[in-house]
Amino acid sequence: PSAMHDVNLKPPPIRFDDIGGQESVKKALRRAVRMSTESTERLSRYFDRPPRGFLLYGPPGCSKTMAAQAMATESGLNFFAVKGAELLNMYVGESERAVRRLFARAREVAPSMIFFDEIDSIGGQRPGFGSSSSSTTSHGGLNVLTTLLNEMDGFEAMEGVVVLAATNRPQALDPALLRPGRIDKVIYVSPPDEEARKAIFRGVAAKRRMNTDVDIDQLARDTEGYSGAEIKGICAHAGEAAYDRDVEEGSSDGIRMSDLQTAIRNQRRQITKE
Ligand code: ATP
């Protein structure tokens, strides 16, 4: 077990409860965890082919990475995480070896999960698929993708290994990745709805000093279209304003509604229709 520790990352202790809203995402991931250790006999009663590969897609800052981390924490599965871009920054041949090694290790210590963040940087469309804006038309990226596809083909037989991938650009993925037996369950992680936004503000309020005039329902209404990350950013800016007031005027009545409203006005929205 000794050599395993350098790659077998300790997940940061994020839990599903730390994620505001996203109930259907949490449900799908809990099911994935349960199924990874379920007997094939029981699974065959309900599934032709139980999904083993999962894709989280959606706009930036809306908790895809958090969801993967929470899944790792709560499942206790051995967790391997790799960013697409990291794999591409290796020497020729190194990234392919890294991918093969990753799957081999995951198999050895199953039940386990492999998380590919920013999968589009290695799993972009191969030339010939009619996409011009591909980031993997270079040879390096192409070989990594081929290796990944090969590993995933052997992967149905891989009891107890779950593959989870995340992307902001699902349309850029090579369709071969999404074929049955590879990544065959696709989960949309939406921007937070009003309930989720309330939950995010409540989560922050529970940890900070809030003025009694803070109205969380109103804040949730005023942040339609903002990502979770942007809402966290709003709270951070409001916190700075309240801290400055404390330092400069000695007023320690906490973060005020007006601090939050100013921060909302100043926070740009990144999520677009597309
Ligand atoms: P990217 O595509 O940019 O990697 P992502 O969807 O993976 O984004 P995360 O990294 O999971 O987004 O989220 C970024 C930060 O936003 C989190 O660390 C967290 O602070 C905050 N956040 C986003 N959504 C939520 C949420 N639903 N509840 C609580 N915090 C959230």
Task: Describe the secondary structure blueprint for this structure.
Elements: H1 23-36, H2 40-44, E1 53-57, H3 64-75, E2 78-83, H4 84-88, H5 94-108, E3 112-117, H6 120-123, H7 139-153, E4 161-167, E5 183-188, H8 194-207, H9 216-222, H10 228-249, H11 257-266
Parallel strand pairs: 1-4, 1-5, 2-3, 3-4
Protein name: P-loop containing nucleoside triphosphate hydrolase protein
Between the first and last Cα atoms, what is the distance in angstroms? 46 Å
For the largest sheet, list the strands in their spatial order. 2-3-4-1-5
- State the oligomer: single chain
The mean pLDDT is 86
Question: Residue share in helices?
Answer: 40-55%
Bound molecules: adenosine-5'-triphosphate
Given the C-alpha coordinates, what overall shape results?
elongated
- How many beta-strand runs? 5
User: What characterizes the major β-sheet?
Assistant: 5 strands, parallel
Structural class by secondary-structure content: alpha/beta
What proportion of the residues form beta strands (DSSP E)? 5-15%
* Integer-rounded radius of gyration: 21 Å
| Distinct helical segment count | 11
Residue ranges: pLDDT <50 for 5 or more in a row?
1-5, 129-139
| N-to-C series of helices and strands | HHEHEHHEHHEEHHHH
